[in-house]
Amino acid sequence: MRALAIVDPVPTTYLPNPQAVSSAGTLDEATDVVSRNIYPHKLRVADMDGRHLQCLTSALDLGDCALGYVQYGFNVEIDPGVITEYLMVKSTVAGQGQVTSGGQTAISTPGSIIMTSMTDTTRIFMTAECRHLTARVCRKAVESRIEEKLGRRLSTPLQFGLEVTSDSDFGRAWHQLLNHICELSATAPKALASEDVRKQYARTMIELLVHAAPHNYSADLERGANPAIPWYVRRARDYMHNHLSELRSVAEIAGYVGITPRTLQNGFRRVFNMTPAQYMREARVQALHTALLGADPSQSVTELMQNVGIVNFSRYAQYYRRKMGVAPSVTLRRGA
Predict the structure, then answer these.
(1) Could you read off the pLDDT of 156-205 as tens digits, one per residue?
(2) Which domains does the chain have, with CATH numbers?
(3) pTM score, whole prediction
(4) Minimal CA–CA distance to 283: which of 294, 272, 293, 295?
(5) What would the pLDDT profile of 76-101 be if each residue is shown by its tens digit?
(6) Exposure of 93 by Cβ count < 10 A (0-12 exposed, 13-18 middle, 19+ buried)?
């Protein structure tokens, strides 16, 4: 840790944890500290001319969310690849940069809010004057909250709009919340020493994202929950989740519930807009993703697939890649 005096004092009010500020003077050091505080990535810096990098970071863990501040003393290109496990919400507090994610590009300026794709490649460019305050939000926590509100599984990957204006309701609320957390961390650090308090702030951030930020399920949430789920669909859904590892057919599920496969097909289409087979596939892909993130390094992708009832390994590897943006082996390495 180094003294904060080596950097300009203006952004110090945006440090999420002033008591834990790290700095780095080489490319390798900067890559390591920012990877640990925000997310693993590749870093490229041009035209250093023998000067020290002067990278500075500060991070605060809130449980399902985390806040990370970063600045560099040079123009840098950041390549995190496809960030499947988290939604990155980037607030530019000084300078200018550029974010390309999900095939779209946005210029980041003070006050702007940019959200990365969780299924496509992200690239970030920061000028020497650029300072970012990034919220790292657990994808599973956001998706689970949306599923809870809708009363059904998500049929397609969650996608947020790339850029949100600061004068929108979400923009104003997001900036005020992050500013409040940073101010509290600086002036009353003992309050944030409580894990329960930190988790409460994470829950508030997730609720803001679910209900106020634009995403592909916003309209469904605004319309309210789906009509009441028929008893047989609810029973079939629960049975499916409880027996993923051994289920082999839709007929088996229908037989357990005591209805015909056609009735089950019609019920799932009406409630979830997908067939029972498609729902089972989505559930297994999500179960595999969870297993990969928490797996022991000695386990194999094939073994983890078998544990959630997958027998067609190559086909499900394709399903997984389409939904998560990376191969299962990549998630296993990251989780380990």
Answers:
(1) 899 998 998 888 889 999 999 999 999 999 999 999 999 999 999 999 99
(2) 4-221 (2.60.120.10), 231-335 (1.10.10.60)
(3) 0.66
(4) 272
(5) 999 999 999 999 999 998 899 999 99
(6) buried
